[in-house]
Amino acid sequence: MTKAAEIVKKLESHKLPTVKIQPLLRNADDIRSSKFGGKPYWPKGMDYPVNKEGKALYLLAQINFEEVPPLKDYPQTGILQFFIENDDLYGMDFDRPIQDVIEDQSGYRVIYHKDIIQTDSDLEQTLPEANQDTILPLEREYAVSFKLEQELPAATDYRFEAIAGDIFNFEEDVAEYIYDNFSAVGSKLGGYANFTQEDPRAQGDEQWLLLFQLDSEWDNDIEIMWGDMGVANFFIRQEDLEQQDFSGVWYNWDCS
Fold this sequence. Notes:
With 256 residues, the chain is an alpha+beta fold. It has one domain: Hypothetical protein YwqG fold, CATH 2.30.320. Helices cover 15% and strands 27% of the residues. It has five helices and twelve strands. The strands form two sheets. Strands 5-4-3-2-6-1-7-8-11-12 form a ten-stranded antiparallel beta sheet. A two-stranded antiparallel ribbon has the order 9-10. The protein is globular and about 65 Å long.
């Protein structure tokens, strides 16, 4: 058995389910639909997320779980939304400790609507949305499609080393094979995380699971860009995911 085959055998027993999300070059069918960007589903009378200056945050992604293949511990109904600030750091403060960011969340917010209102007149219709004048990773709305898959550990995820060893100690051809065939790129729910730098959870924050990832995409007229081909991750603790508590989600993004 080759060295690469030995490593793959170790990885096989650590598969994780993930729902891959593909942006489509059209708007979503309905304000309640899953999408990247666009106007959010938002009930009238509910406080809308704002930054420290009271300016509205912008919808980054909206997931309607009635449209998503069942994924362990995730909701099966309701709408989950990811909001970020319209600034050149996309709502991130890289100089603050992780716990401070989570407790403040002035530049981002994750909101879960357990029950979905079906009457349009009970929903806000004039909320801001990403466009060519905003400083955001995307400039328009994209409908999305979902596909349930099984994903093996990628070398970018901190768990890879404990499973298969330090990839920087592999022979060049073996490391190249792993990088080429076991990637965590792409937008998704769950699974293993992708980074252009290093996994921030490796610094003592390993209890965090990947909740949602929005990756850069620049193909087929779809334009989603985090800095220089970067990626954004939203992490959650296992117990919070099981309880469908999204108030303590940790947001991070990086680029090359």
